[in-house]
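ok so for the tutorial part 2 we go from a plain amino acid sequence to predicted C-alpha cells. step 1 is just haveing the sequence, like this:
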Amino acid sequence: MIRFRGERDGRKFVAIGLSRGNMDKLLDGQPIVINFETEFGMPDTHLDLFVMGGETEQSMADELVALGMLRPETITHRERRARQ
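step 2 — the prediction. this is what the C-alpha cells look like for a chain of 84 residues:
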C-alpha cells in the first residue's frame, strides 16, 4: 500500500493506493486502519481512516454491526436509494 498527501488545483488531499494483496486481505475481512497523525504527518487531526471490503454493502454493514461500529438500525446508502 502507498499513502501520500499533496495538493492539486489548490486543494489539499490524502490518498492511498492498494495492491492486489491489500484488496485480497480486505475481502478476507482484514480491515486497514490508517492514522492520519502518524501515516500522513498531520498532527492534531485525531482522525483514523477505516478501510474495509466486502461482497455487498449489506455484508459490510453486518460486519460493522458485529464489531459494534454501527447500530443495527443504520440504513445503508443503497437502501435509501431503493426507497426513492
